[in-house]
Amino acid sequence: MKKHTLLGLGNALVDTEFEVNDAFLQENKINKGQMTLIDAEIYKQIFTTLSAQFEPKKRTGGGSAANSMVIFSQLGGAARYCCRVADDEFGQFYTQDLKDQGVICEPAYADGVTGKCIVLITPDAQRTMLTYLGSTADLCVNDIDFSHITNADWLFMEGYLVTAEGAFELAKKAIVHAKQQGIKIALSFSDPAIVSFFHSQITELLTLGIDLLFANEEEVLTWSKQEDLTLACEAIGEHSKKIVVTLGERGCAIYNTEHNAKMDFYSGVKANVVDTNGAGDSFAGAFLYATQQNWSEEKSAKLSNRVASTMVADFGARTSQSKIQNCK
Fold first, then answer.
1. Which pLDDT value is given to residue 1?
2. How buried is residue 100: exposed, middle or buried, by Cβ count under 10 Å (0-12/13-18/19+)?
3. How far apart are CA 219 and CA 114, in angstroms?
4. Which terminus, N or C, of the chain has the lesser number of Cβ atoms within 10 Å?
């Protein structure tokens, strides 16, 4: 009997969220709406500056793929997450946070400090992230028990893995291993900046061949260098059997190469948006759950849109299981 059906592979980060104004981003030359990698010194400087002006709103476990694992688990799926943390207070918090959400998490422990992410939410609900990878920057092949992949139905990885050499090599080996074992593979582009600055690495993962890609419209257009969504998905469809594109309040589009290679659109759900952090992650987690349950494409899209709309109505990339269950 398999102990998990979804195996997630990604970074381990503890999110600290602040509500800020656009002036703060401009004054500190922070690229709005993107994830920017920073070092320990800059993290300390920014955090000190932030704390002097704004009160922290929320602290939660984070990491793109981990957020998806939590949603998958909250909906009733069996999930395991593979990651790397330091044996410090943040690492203990992170591991316990996942376990509290029902996700099996036995991380690799390393020297140094656990990764952290400053999440900045502006009045328009847009999220901007400053990420200090810490110990997760050294995530590598030796940190993962590959039998966990073999014992899953799906392997899910975040695009952020391409930012570090060891993690990138791990992602490639994980895809190859999954394909050899007949395990289905899902990948998230994760962030427009990742697709832009690490285009060749993202492309290398895609060309290994995957079953399901999650991306937003900007990411798809950026990777393909196309201006038309359908043409962009046609290009990606050479490497992925299905592409699920999130469109914000407009819902999502699904391009399925195995179903006459056509694009289907599914309307979104109206929401009182206060924070877009984790919206795409929650969508992916819900869609993976529905897919694992063999739901129809339409039913899967509707669930995922409802879950994402629920997530953006709360601060932070996590919300209660009862709220997620009510989306079913």
1. 42
2. exposed
3. 28
4. N
Position of tokens 């997530």?
A: 311
Q: Where are the alpha helices (DSSP H) in 123-225?
A: 147-150, 165-181, 192-197, 199-207, 217-224
The token pair that represents 274 in the structure block = 């206060």
Level-2 CATH architecture, domain 65-111+138-316? 3-Layer(aba) Sandwich (3.40)
Name the DSSP letter for residue 159: G
Q: Is the pLDDT of residue 3 over 70?
A: no
Neighbours of 300 (CB within 10 A): 23
Matching residue, tokens 């656009």: 22
Q: What is the CA radius of gyration of the chain?
A: 18
Reduced to 3 states (helix: H, G, I; strand: E, B; else coil), residue 69 is: helix
Q: Say what the pTM is.
A: 0.92
Amino acid at 108: A
Is the pLDDT at 120 greater than 70? The verdict is: yes
Residue 2: pLDDT above 60? no
Q: Mean of the pLDDT values across residues 13-36?
A: 92
Tell me how far apart the alpha carbons of residues 77 and 271 are, in angstroms, rounded to a whole number: 25
Tokens describing residue 270: 């109206």
Res 106: pLDDT: 85
DSSP string, 55-75: -EEEEEEE-HHHHHHHHHHHT
**272 and 315 in contact (C-beta within 8 Å)?**
no
Note the residue count of the chain.
Answer: 328
State the average pLDDT over residues 163-169: 95
CA 242 to CA 247: how far, in whole Å?
16
Q: How far apart are CA 282 and CA 266, in angstroms?
A: 17
